[in-house]
Write a structure and sequence with these properties.
The structure is a single chain. Helix content is about 70%, strand content about 0%. It is an all-alpha fold. The longest helix has 30 residues. The mean pLDDT is about 80. Belongs to the MICOS complex subunit Mic10 family.
Length: about 100
């Protein structure tokens, strides 16, 4: 069987996109659940509210991963290879220019 990995352009390599999305989803789910658990232990006394803060953190993690993955699958070829957030261009406003003078 021939190796087709080198012949596929990045925008058509769906397996790599799925791998990156699953990795991103698992990491964000775990990290945000741990953040919710820490916040629950720090701020709440009841076990129900602690579990609710963990669930909220997990939901935030899955939601942000879903947003980035849907952007990666729908994006044009140049930006779909990476799953980073879009870069913001910073423009200098007249207020910031006046403050610099």
């Amino acid at each position: 069987m021939a190796d087709t990995k080198g012949s596929l352009p990045p925008e058509y390599d769906v397996n790599a996109k799925w791998d990156a999305c699953l990795d991103l989803t698992v990491r964000r789910f775990v990290y945000s659940s741990l953040g919710g658990a820490f916040a629950g232990l720090l701020f709440f006394r009841s076990p129900v509210t602690r579990w609710a803060s963990i669930a909220l953190g997990a939901g935030i993690g899955i939601g942000s991963a879903y947003t980035d993955c849907s952007r990666a699958f729908d994006a044009p070829s140049s930006s779909s290879a990476n799953l980073a957030a879009p870069k913001n261009t910073t423009e200098t406003s007249p207020v910031s220019q006046a403050a610099d003078e």
